[in-house]
Amino acid sequence: MTRVIVHAGFHKTGTTSLQSYLAQNRARFAPFFAYYGQNDFKSAGARARVFAQRPFPWRMAKFRAAFHAFLDDIPDADTIVLSRETFCGVMPGHRTWRRRTIKDFKTAGIPLCRTVIQLLRERFGPDVRIEFLFTTREREAWIRSVYGHLLRSIHLRVEFEEFRAGFPNLIDLEEEAKRIASALDGCTTHIRAMESYGTHHNGPAAAILELAGVDAATCATLPRAARANEGQPPELEAAFLELNRSGKSKHTLRHMKNEMLARKDR
User: What pTM value is reported for the model?
Assistant: First the structure.
């Protein structure tokens, strides 16, 4: 029987580090599981994100077709790991086509995850063992990280205090995972806090390695995980905020921000 572990979120909970580590060590994990991450899903990841912001039936149909095409192309394996945070939608703070701020994951995450389940059962048979993993983070640290990410990625023009005030009933990620899990019949759900892996040799990827049954001896021989997609320092956030308020084009802003980030990393 095929076993599929779907790491479906959440954004800003160490997902980039997790995915990078699994991709970099893919060959070493091959005896234990076949791994597919951010760059492996063709357009399915982007289609899921678009559906979350524009939840029309034809947007779901496009996601379904893209994910179906991905599954058709991968070979059978005893254990398969899929990691893509857009399977639970888009990061809160983004806006819908009606310009309403997205404030949760479950609204888009439930229909998206249900579609993933349906297509996995079509591909691997009704007896496929499907498990979901949700990684979480303490909510105040999480929303602060979300703010920094949005400053960098979109034209957010407000200070953090104003942004935070727009989430008076800020979701708790563990509770959000439980709400999504309750709607996914016949699937086991695992919830792991990012903080539990802060100093782990394998980083957040350890959550996957534990579930997949990778033995401790193998894990110990792997390189130490590096942090990825870290937030920018306060002075860079302030510079991004100023840029976002400048009225420059999206293309110009993207170019200028990328240059600033590259200088930071030197």
Answer: 0.95
